[in-house]
Amino acid sequence: MRKNRRNRLRLVGAVAAVLVAVTAPSAQGATTHEEPPTLADLAQRHGRYFGSATDNPELVDEPYKAILGSEFDQITPGNGMKWYATEPQQGVFDFTAGDEIVDLARANHQKVRGHTLVWHSQLPDWLTGREWTAPELRAVLKKHIQTEVRHYRGKVFAWDVVNEAFNEDGTYRETVFYKTLGPGYIADALRWAHQADPRVKLYLNDYNIESIGPKSDAYFKLAKELRAEGVPLHGIGLQAHLALQYGYPTTLEDNLRRFSKLGLDTALTEVDIRMYVPADEEKLATQAQWYADLTEACLAVRRCVGITIWDYTDKYSWIPAFFDGEGAALPWDEQLQPKPAYYAIREALK
Ligand code: 9MR
């Protein structure tokens, strides 16, 4: 009796061992290859993407490219799809820079956000160097938008159609487009883009609209009007260029939610969190907390579709060149080593 029981137990044990041996390696191998999951893997478990901007000059840096290709499932060209790059002479289009990034993304199975079709900055000289009548500028704008959107049809999943259209107080920015064409240029731009690629998601994108306030209110009001008029607008991009000295945007989650309720997607499109340098342990800890908080805010709102950091390493951040004495804004340092922010994002995504 006793012996029998012991034999049976031994048999059960043996079967269990075989089962473990058979199932464990394949289950493990399929999901992790024994590597820890990447930010992209973790984000995908929530149905989100986790991306990074990149820029053509950086693509000769192989160690940089290795992390760019493995950790993220979405890429935004930092400059390569802007007007100055894509239509350097009127009617002469050059998609070399953008194509290089699209090809790299394809090789790494990453999706691409198109950035950006209509913006007052980084315009070619032929456009800024003269006066335009409304009919002339309309034709120029339509041709630019439609040629570029057609070129990238099926290659980008979203476009920042109009970038940075509002001032801080919620009034329209007096760009050449606004001054010449009036506020209707935004609806026109969206309609033209939609004609050129009916499937791509069309966004308005801006900075300092993470909090509820005059500038994000202006987007809310415009988005509501555009939706009511049936204009093809699908999402609002919140750039999220944050700075420790200005405080965390505590109304971010509520703000994302109110856009969701209009039937719009949202995305954090250009995240970085700068500080006065040198960085120290305390500043890096606060930065890490903010990265976690904004990740959690996005995860908490169903239609927040993903997060893009504005490049991933301090080595290639735009901040030091634009803000005197500031930097250290990204989750990897200048030596491509992960900072506390990186681990905080991972935790937030778990
Ligand atoms: O990252 C871009 C940087 O390389 C350019 O020099 C800069 C010029 O304005 O634009 C940067 O990207 C901007 C983005 O296109 C729109 N939002 C603000 C970003 C930072 O300036």
Automatic annotation (TrEMBL):
Location of the GH10 domain: 53-348
Catalytic activity: Endohydrolysis of (1->4)-beta-D-xylosidic linkages in xylans
EC number: 3.2.1.8
Presence of keyword Signal: yes
GO biological process: xylan catabolic process
Molecular function GO terms recorded: endo-1,4-beta-xylanase activity
Highest taxon above the source species: Bacteria
Signal peptide: 1-29
Assigned keywords, A-Z: Carbohydrate metabolism, Glycosidase, Hydrolase, Polysaccharide degradation, Signal, Xylan degradation
Gene3D superfamilies: Glycosidases
Family listed: Belongs to the glycosyl hydrolase 10 (cellulase F) family.
Protein name, as recorded: Beta-xylanase
Organism: Streptomyces davaonensis (strain DSM 101723 / JCM 4913 / KCC S-0913 / 768)
